[in-house]
Design brief:
alpha/beta; globular; DHFR-like_dom_sf; Riboflavin_Biosynth_HTPR
C-alpha cells in the first residue's frame, strides 16, 4: 500500500488559499510577500520531490501547476513522476503534453485503488477541496505542513468543517525556523 501525503503551506488559522500569488484572493502571495526568505524552511519541498513516487492533484491545482511547473528547474524531478488528477470535468484534451504521464481519476474510490498499487509515496500539493474530501474519507496517511505565523482570516481551509469522529495524528518531525515558519510532519494514527 502506498502512502498518501498531503503537503501544504498553511497559515496559523488554517488558510491555504493563494500562497504563490494566484489572482482573486486579497492576501494572494502571502508566503513570499509577508515572510523573510529562509532557505532551510523550504528543505521539506526538495525532500518531497526526491522521495515521491507519484503526484496527486485536484483539477484547480493541476491547472495552476501544469502551466508553470513543467518548465521550472526547481520542480524538475516532478516531470518524471506519474501524475494523477482527480476531476469529474477534465478530459484528455485538457491535459498538457510537456509534463510526463498524467492520468485522470474520477472518484475517491479511484484514489483508494491507486493507494493499493505498488510504488513510492504519492504527494499531493495544494488541492484544498481534494484534501478536505480525502481527509474526511480517511485516505490521507501523512501531513507535511509548513505553518506560517500569519492570520489570514477568510480563505480556503485545509480541513473541512464536517462533523466527524476525532482523527488522531502523531507528530513525527518538527522544526521551527528564524522567520517563524514551523515544519510539522504528522502521521495519521489508524
Amino acid at each position: 500500500m502506498r502512502t498518501l501525503i498531503s503537503s501544504a503551506f498553511v497559515s496559523l488559522d488554517g488558510v491555504v488559499e493563494a500562497p504563490g500569488g494566484e489572482p482573486g484572493y486579497r492576501n494572494s502571495g502571502w508566503t513570499f510577500k509577508e515572510m523573510d526568505f529562509v532557505p532551510e524552511a523550504y528543505g521539506l519541498k526538495g525532500q518531497e520531490q526526491e522521495e515521491a513516487g507519484a503526484m496527486l492533484l485536484g483539477r484547480a491545482s493541476y491547472e495552476a501547476f501544469s502551466a508553470v511547473w513543467p518548465d521550472m528547474e526547481d520542480f524538475a524531478r516532478y516531470r518524471t513522476l506519474p501524475k494523477y488528477v482527480v476531476s469529474t470535468t477534465l478530459t484528455e484534451d485538457d491535459l498538457v503534453d510537456n509534463w510526463g504521464e498524467i492520468t485522470i481519476l474520477r472518484s475517491l474510490d479511484e484514489v483508494a485503488a491507486l493507494k493499493e498499487t505498488e510504488g513510492g509515496p504519492i504527494i499531493m500539493h495544494g488541492s484544498a477541496s481534494l484534501n478536505r474530501a480525502l481527509s474526511d474519507a480517511g485516505l490521507i496517511d501523512r501531513y507535511h505542513l509548513l505553518v506560517f505565523p500569519l492570520l489570514l482570516g477568510a480563505g480556503k481551509r485545509l480541513f473541512s468543517e464536517t462533523d466527524k469522529d476525532t482523527q488522531k495524528l502523531k507528530l513525527v518531525e518538527h522544526e521551527a525556523y528564524s522567520n517563524g515558519i514551523q515544519k510539522n510532519v504528522f502521521d495519521v494514527v489508524r
